[in-house]
Structures are given as structure tokens and as C-alpha cells.
Design brief:
Blueprint: E1 6-15, E2 18-28, E3 33-37, H1 44-52, E4 59-64, E5 70-73, H2 85-90, H3 100-108, H4 122-134, E6 140-144, H5 152-164, E7 168-172, H6 176-182, E8 185-190, E9 193-197, H7 204-235, H8 241-260, E10 281-292, E11 295-306, E12 310-313, H9 321-328, E13 336-341, E14 347-351, H10 363-368, E15 374-377, E16 380-383, H11 384-390, H12 407-419, E17 425-429, H13 437-449, E18 453-457, H14 461-467, E19 470-474, E20 484-488, H15 491-498, H16 506-519, H17 531-558, H18 563-566, H19 568-606
Parallel strand pairs: 3-7, 3-8, 5-6, 6-7, 12-18, 12-19, 14-17, 17-18
Antiparallel strand pairs: 1-2, 1-4, 8-9, 10-11, 10-13, 15-16, 19-20
Helix pairs in contact: 7-8, 17-19
Length: 607
């Protein structure tokens, strides 16, 4: 095994009397792809800051190989006195680093190099910090929530960029799909200590559940052993005093171990407070259009949303998702067409913008809207501290100012307040930012089991696949023209219906094809085509026509918006067949193109 280039050993750290890290380890070797996972507040970001040299542990050792360069993605970048985004990013470069990489990264992350850092939005500031961290191509790259505020094309681009990178990676992220695509090892920070799995995140949850089950069995065995020893002390035959003293000492140790065991943190127990049913028809939009100046945001869009529908809205940043959402909910009037809302609608919106929180307000005041120490949840009066426990807040935090909460805790607080409000329609605008996996699981269950209607705007592919029954996406994401299309199923189903095996949006696909075309070289001419090559050249066009006709048939059947709800297994079977068919079509097209190029070269040589 190669020696580590960065190693944390037996790290201890206490904050405010609470032990955060109690023997955590982290070992990074060249080329590692590690995801660091754990509950919000478990100390993941703190452990990463210790690895970056920003925070000093109270005990333990931190070793970094002298020749190793380390870069850390800040969650809250400090722009200091930098006058431009480019200057801030270039300040992270070391001797010998290529300054042109800064320009490359700024372009792909949609940032202007001459922009004033003080005028950047929160999302733009995070992307600027990402440019600064990626540009030097360090030996170790520590990324804390790198996908926050990135849209789907940018997330897919970042996955490709990291796959090409030679840096060892340690990644903290709430985005399951991103972790599955980027990690090859998993470090679980749980109750102050770390455990390592030499597999990527895809295997983590099964492994974690097994570890917790074994721990529970060991605690059960320890409890039974204590009962047996206590019975022996009370009723056993009197033996030598020395042996009795020894067994009594062992019993005390077992009791201390049993009482001192910290079980896994509790799970959130919550559900959305349901209002009376809305009408069966929730939203009806007919030929809706909206423009700002010369730019069309929505053009001739129609949809009928029924009670119980769960709709995902996806697309690149700036394409008009928020505008379309406001049109559908009646917040914005269309320039053309009509929007009719159903009867008895009671809407709640989960707004994940942290700016909406007053940092000086206490948790109790925020949850009760300043009306004392109780609130009404689902028609029942509840004390605020009891309700806080459902969301893993401690009773003593009731009078804590919001400014002292982590980003994940703030997201959980917003979730707690909104779920307490009766609603039959929930609007979720980027709800997954800063939520840990367990809270995401809860939110997924709430959305899936909510009897009303849900409209969800998200860049989290896994969350979309797990929750929505249909997806709205721009018809042309590279050059938005206001047209939006409705697809049955989640994100992966949308990809299948678009006939793509990769990204949902075509920009990346076009870049890939251009790169392949640029680098591709035709096979050398060998005199004449073989019989097999001639036969393939003659028969491939017919096979392609048949395959494309079958693909069109499958797409027509899957275009039925009600198919997924009626027969999800049948829909998934069609999607799988379509995906395989598209792959075969692509392979046949490439084979035909190569043969055609070879035939042309041979004809030129013959002439």
C-alpha cells in the first residue's frame, strides 16, 4: 500500500462542552476518491478544515507530506480586498500553475472574470470559490458541498472535470447521485469517530445499516450479560473473596460501558400538516406565454395538474424555471393564454434562501411566529420544545439565535416551520440544499406520501427520481426559446424519453461529439472492402430505419402522461428497452459512418 500524503490520526475536538470529534481518523493517498458522510452537526466540515490546516485539533496528529499541495473549497469565501473574481481565483494559484485554467473554469461555471466579488450572489460566490480550489490542480482537493447552487449541466460538467483530475478528492455532499458518480471509498463520521468502507457511496447505506444492526446486537448481549452477573452476585454460591471482588469490578465496568454507549442519533419524525382536500383539478394552464423584453421565457405552454400529482421542474440556471413556477401558481400574470387555479387551494412554500431568516431571532420565536411557546400542528396543540425534538433539535436550543445554527440546521428549521402549516399544495424550491441524508430521506417520504399536490424545483437527480411522477424541462436548454415539454416519470425517465444515455441537456453531448469528431481518424485504406464490410454497409441503413421506427413507437407510448401512474413497471420496461435501443442505434450509426468513410478513401485511392 502506498504511503499516505495526508493523514489525520486520533483527532479530538470539543466545542462548547460537547465532544465533537473523539478519535477521528482520515487517511488520504494519491488518487483517492473519498466521500465523507455523516449527520448534520457530526463534524464533517470541521474534520475537513483540520485536514486543510484551518482548524487546530485539541489532540491527535495531522501529517501532510512536505511536497503535497492542498486546496479547500470554502462554504463562505472571503474575498478580502480582491477587486475582481479573476484576481481572487488567481490568488489560489501556486508557482508553475497554469493561469489559463482560471479562464477555462470561469467560462464553464458561468462567471465573469471582471465581476466585483462584493456584488456576487451567494451561488456565484460559491462558484468563484470552486474556481479558486480547482484551478491549481492540487495533490489533495477538499470539497465541502461543491454542487450547492450549481444547475444540472454544471453538476454533470463538474463530475467529468473531477473524473479527469489527478487530485485526491475528499467530498462532502448531500447529492447522492454526485457521490455515487465520484467516490471510490467512503468515510463515515459517526458519534465522533470514523469508519472507512473501501467502496463508493453506492454501497454505503447497506453497509451502515449492517454496522448499526451489529452494534444493537452487541448492546443486547451486554445487557443480558449484566443481568446474569447481577443474578450471580445476589444468589450465587459464595466463593473466594478475591473472585467476588474481581467479578464485581467487571460488572461495574460492564454497567459503565452500557450506560456510556451513544446510540445512533435519533431519526426525524415528521409529516406535512394536511389541509382539506383541494379540488380534483389543481391547475389548468392553456397556451401560456411570458416574455421579458425580446426574450421568450415561456411560449405556448399547456398543462393540467390533478390533485396528487408530483411534478419536477428542471433546467439550467436562468432558463426560466422560477418564472414558469410563478405562472402556474398565479403569482405572475401571463402575457398570453390563461391559468386557472382549482378550488380550496392552500399553498405552502419551502423557501431555502437563508437570507429570509433573521439571524437574531430565536428558534422558538421563529417556529411559533412569536406567539408564545406552543404551536398548532395538524390540528393539535404542541409545545415548541417537543416539536423541535421531532427535527433533532435539543430543548435548550429553543432560545438559541438562528445565527448560531449550521447551514444544515437552518434548512431543517425552515422545514420544521413549513411542515407545521396546513396545506394541500407544497412548492419546493431547491429543498435539498444543506440537508443531510436522513433529512432528505424524510423529505422524500413526505413528498411521496403527501395526499395533495407537489411542484418541485431541484437539481438533485436522485431526489427527483425518488419523488416526482412527471417532469417539466426546456425543449432546448442550450438555446432557450420558451418551449417547455412534459415527460412522465423522474429525471432518469426523462433522459430515456429524450433518447440520451448521458446528460439531460444537450450542451455537454454536443461538446463530447465535437471532441470525438476532432480526434477521430478514419481507418487506413486496405485496398478494398471485405465481403463482411460490404454486407454491413448495404444492410445497416435498413436496420437503422427499423430501429428508429421502433424507438418512435416506444416514445409515442411513453408520451402518455398517465402511463407512469397507471403502470410504473410497464413504463420502466419501455424505458429500459428504449435506452438499449438508442445505444444500438448509436453503435450502428458509428459503424456505418466508419465504413462509409473507409469506402470513400478507397475510391479516392483507386482514382
Amino acid at each position: 500500500m502506498a504511503p499516505p500524503i495526508l493523514k489525520l490520526d486520533d483527532i479530538h475536538l470539543t466545542f462548547g462542552g460537547t465532544s465533537l470529534l473523539t478519535g477521528a481518523d482520515l487517511q488520504i493517498q494519491a488518487g483517492d476518491r473519498i466521500c465523507l458522510v455523516g449527520r448534520n452537526g457530526s463534524g464533517k466540515s470541521t474534520l475537513m478544515k483540520i485536514a486543510a490546516g484551518i482548524v487546530e485539533p485539541q489532540s491527535g496528529t495531522v501529517f501532510t507530506h512536505p511536497a503535497t499541495t492542498v486546496r479547500y473549497l470554502e462554504q463562505d469565501p472571503d474575498f478580502g480586498s480582491f477587486l475582481t473574481v479573476r484576481a481572487y481565483a488567481e490568488a489560489g494559484l501556486g508557482p508553475g500553475d497554469d493561469p489559463h485554467r482560471v479562464s477555462y473554469l470561469l467560462e464553464h461555471l458561468g462567471l465573469a472574470g471582471d465581476a466585483d466579488p462584493e456584488r456576487l450572489s451567494g451561488g456565484e460566490a460559491r462558484r468563484a470559490a470552486l474556481v479558486r480550489a480547482l484551478a491549481p490542480q492540487p495533490d489533495v482537493l477538499l470539497l465541502d458541498e461543491p454542487t450547492n447552487h450549481l444547475d444540472l449541466p454544471a453538476i454533470e460538467w463538474l463530475e467529468e472535470e473531477l473524473a479527469r483530475s489527478r487530485s485526491a478528492l475528499v467530498i462532502i455532499s448531500h447529492d447522492r447521485r454526485f457521490l455515487e458518480n465520484t467516490s471510490r471509498a467512503t468515510v463515515w463520521l459517526d458519534r465522533g469517530v470514523t469508519r472507512r468502507l473501501e467502496q463508493g457511496f453506492a454501497a454505503f447505506e447497506t453497509w451502515r445499516d449492517g454496522v448499526l444492526d451489529e452494534e444493537e446486537r452487541e448492546q443486547h448481549k451486554l445487557g443480558r450479560a449484566i443481568v446474569r452477573e447481577e443474578h450471580w452476585l445476589r444468589y450465587g454460591v459464595t466463593a473466594r473473596r478475591k473472585r467476588n471482588v474481581r467479578r464485581l469490578s467487571e460488572l461495574k465496568e460492564m454497567r459503565a460501558r452500557f450506560r456510556g454507549h451513544r446510540g445512533p442519533e435519533g431519526t426525524i419524525a415528521a409529516s406535512a400538516a394536511a389541509a382539506r382536500d383541494s379540488g380534483k383539478l389543481v391547475i389548468e394552464a392553456r397556451s401560456v406565454g411570458k416574455s421579458f423584453g425580446e426574450r421568450k421565457i415561456v411560449a405556448d405552454f399547456s398543462i393540467r395538474v390533478q390533485r396528487g400529482d408530483r411534478i419536477g421542474l428542471v433546467g439550467p440556471n436562468g432558463v426560466g424555471k422560477t418564472t414558469l413556477l410563478k405562472l402556474l401558481t398565479g403569482e405572475l400574470a401571463p402575457d398570453a393564454g390563461t391559468v386557472r387555479l382549482g378550488a380550496n387551494l392552500e399553498i405552502t412554500t419551502l423557501d431555502q434562501r437563508r437570507a429570509a431568516l433573521d439571524p437574531d431571532e430565536t428558534l422558538e420565536h421563529f417556529l411559533t411566529d412569536g406567539r408564545g411557546s406552543s404551536l398548532v400542528v395538524d390540528g393539535r396543540q404542541r409545545h415548541v420544545t417537543g416539536y423541535m425534538k421531532d427535527f433533532l433539535f435539543q430543548p435548550e436550543q429553543a432560545r438559541t439565535p438562528i445565527r448560531e445554527l449550521s447551514g444544515g440546521e437552518r434548512a431543517r428549521l425552515i422545514l420544521a416551520r413549513n411542515l407545521a402549516r396546513p396545506a394541500n399544495m407544497i412548492i419546493l424550491d431547491e429543498p435539498t440544499n444543506d440537508l443531510d441524508m436522513e433529512t432528505l430521506d424524510l423529505l422524500q417520504e413526505i413528498v411521496s406520501g403527501f395526499p395533495g399536490t407537489v411542484i418541485l424545483v431541484s437539481h438533485d437527480r436522485d431526489f427527483l427520481d425518488r419523488t416526482v411522477t412527471s417532469t417539466i424541462a426546456p425543449a432546448n436548454a442550450d438555446a432557450p426559446d420558451g418551449r417547455w415539454l412534459l415527460y412522465a416519470g423522474g429525471y432518469s425517465d426523462m433522459i430515456a424519453q429524450k433518447g440520451q444515455s448521458g446528460p439531460a441537456f444537450p450542451g455537454r453531448r454536443k461538446r463530447e461529439k465535437a471532441a470525438v469528431a476532432k480526434d477521430a481518424k478514419p481507418a487506413p485504406a486496405r485496398g478494398k472492402l471485405s465481403y463482411k464490410q460490404k454486407f454491413a454497409l448495404e444492410t445497416l441503413p435498413g436496420k437503422l430505419r427499423d430501429a428508429e421506427a421502433r424507438a418512435a413507437e416506444l416514445e409515442g407510448r411513453m408520451a402518455d402522461p398517465g402511463l407512469f401512474a397507471r403502470d410504473p413497471d410497464g413504463f420502466n420496461s419501455l424505458a429500459d428497452e428504449l435506452s438499449e435501443l438508442r445505444a444500438r442505434i448509436a453503435a450502428m450509426e458509428e459503424e456505418w459512418l466508419e465504413l462509409e468513410m473507409l469506402r470513400e478513401d478507397l475510391e479516392k485511392d483507386a482514382s
